[in-house]
Design brief:
226 residues; alpha/beta; Rossmann fold; 5-stranded parallel beta sheet; two-stranded antiparallel ribbon; 12 helices; globular
């Protein structure tokens, strides 16, 4: 199928809906209040421990702006949190294009929200395998699936989405939103996308390198093989 090229994008995008799912929760105390101050009508979709952390930060105010991803999608999380965000409505909101009428029709048909910002960082694979005594099962359990998918989808669609993967970027993002009345510029979205693709490339490279250097017998030794 031929890919229809995007011809029109917005220089300035107002942030109304944020999808947040982070392993490293540092900096949320800067990001979340900053988002709410700059974007008073914001809606935050979140998962698991991230949802709990944001709710604790906001207290009673969370009722007005915070929503479980599972409530939005209608799909409960898989036990152990293995599947949380891999959902049709989520990816409509990440990959749909503003000026594509067919995409707009799909969004309307499924009552999907445009997601304007994704705040995601990944399971700590590199830190896990660097720990003394870490097993191959420890490594396998820290291979993130949903996180890289969201990061890549949002970064691909930088035309209208900001993807924030590093807590060190929270202050700058909050400052731009505050100065612009809840708006992020195309140049900012593109710079964040560049950083996001570097992250996923480095992450996959670390996994590939670890597995390449792992002996199959050593891998199997941590399991009861039937």
């Amino acid at each position: 199928m031929a890919i229809k090229a995007v011809r029109t994008v917005d220089e300035r995008v107002r942030v109304r809906t944020v999808l947040a799912s982070v392993s490293d929760k540092s900096g949320l105390e800067i990001l979340v209040p900053g988002l709410i101050a700059a974007c008073p009508d914001i809606s935050i979709l979140s998962t698991g421990g991230t949802y709990d952390a944001i709710r604790a930060l906001l207290g009673a105010k969370s009722v007005d702006c915070l929503r479980q991803v599972s409530e939005y999608t209608g799909q409960p999380e898989m036990q152990g949190g293995l599947v949380k965000t891999l959902d049709w409505r989520i990816y409509l909101g990440l990959l749909s294009e503003t000026y594509n009428p067919a995409h707009r029709a799909d969004m309307a048909m499924h009552s999907a929200l445009d997601i304007d910002m994704v705040v995601v960082n990944l399971y700590p694979f590199q830190k896990t395998v660097a720990r003394p005594g870490a097993t191959s099962e420890d490594a396998r359990g820290n291979i993130d699936i949903g996180g890289p998918c969201m990061v890549r989808a949002a970064a691909k669609n930088f035309h209208r989405i900001a993807v924030v993967t590093d807590p060190a970027d929270y202050p700058g993002v909050v400052a731009e939103l505050a100065a612009g009345g809840g708006i992020l510029a195309l140049a900012t979205r593109f710079a964040l996308a560049q950083k996001a693709f570097r992250l996923t490339a480095q992450y996959d490279s670390a996994i590939a390198s670890y597995l390449a250097n792992l002996d199959a017998r050593a891998m199997a030794a941590v399991y009861e093989v039937r």
